[in-house]
Amino acid sequence: MIRKCRHNDLTIMYAIINDAAQAYKGVIPTDCWQDPYMPLDELKHEIEDGVVFWGIEEGGTLLGIMGIQDKGKVTLIRHAYILTNRQNHGIGTQLLLHLEGMTKKPILIGTWAAAAWAIRFYEKNGYRLLSRIETEQLLKQYWSIPVRQVVTSVVLANPAWVVANSIAENDIYPKQ
User: Fold this and answer.
1) How far apart are CA 74 and CA 161, in angstroms?
2) What CATH number is associated with residue 65?
3) Of 7, 76, 79, 176, which has the fewest beta carbons less than 10 angstroms from its beta carbon?
4) In angstroms, how far is the first alpha carbon of the chain from the final one?
5) Domain total of the chain
């Protein structure tokens, strides 16, 4: 069952994030790794900053979580984590589809450039990797992350973003 996460889920959300984030250890730049990957205070800050978490629950236990954040003109998918022993069973896809159904706005997703598995997952679900220039601009505009993370991350966009920005480009640079 997919449900909105509640305040009393913080401990299990923290555990899910830090379990799944072990995949980043030794993959992302070492100066970007910390243990725990996301401290509890940081998770609380993300929620206070408007990230709304949804999770898949089975037998009363959360197996994975994914956040959605309204940023005005766009929606961000944030902090997608599935328990290591439950990955590759469609949980992430179910959560992503659920969150996509919650907005009509273009969706952007940021992840580490070195997280090839995450990039493949989003591409498999219809997202397109944006250019380096677009990535840096969007990360600075819509995320509150350190400069080091900006230069080591990528942004993927759903088809609505691609269409909206293709129209804007065609208005500025009409085809001859």
Assistant:
1) 8
2) 3.40.630.30
3) 176
4) 51
5) 1
Q: Quickly count: other Cβ atoms within 10 Å of residue 144's Cβ.
A: 9
pTM score: 0.92
Placement of tokens 């994914």 in the chain: 66
pLDDT tens, per residue, the chain with 176 residues = 999 999 999 999 999 999 999 999 999 999 999 999 999 999 999 999 999 999 999 999 999 999 999 999 999 999 999 999 999 999 999 999 999 999 999 999 999 999 999 999 999 999 999 999 999 999 999 999 989 999 999 999 999 998 888 755 444 444 44
| Domain membership of residue 64 as a residue range | 2-172
DSSP string covering the chain:
-EEE--GGGHHHHHHHHHHHGGGGTTTS-GGG--SSSS-HHHHHHHHHTT-EEEEEEETTEEEEEEEEEE-SS-EEEEEEEE-GGGTTSSHHHHHHHHHHTT--S-EEEEEETT-HHHHHHHHHTT-EEPPHHHHHHHHHHH----HHHHHTEEEEE-HHHHHHHHHHHHHHS---
Give the residue among 137, 70, 155, 66 at the shortest CA–CA distance from 105.
70
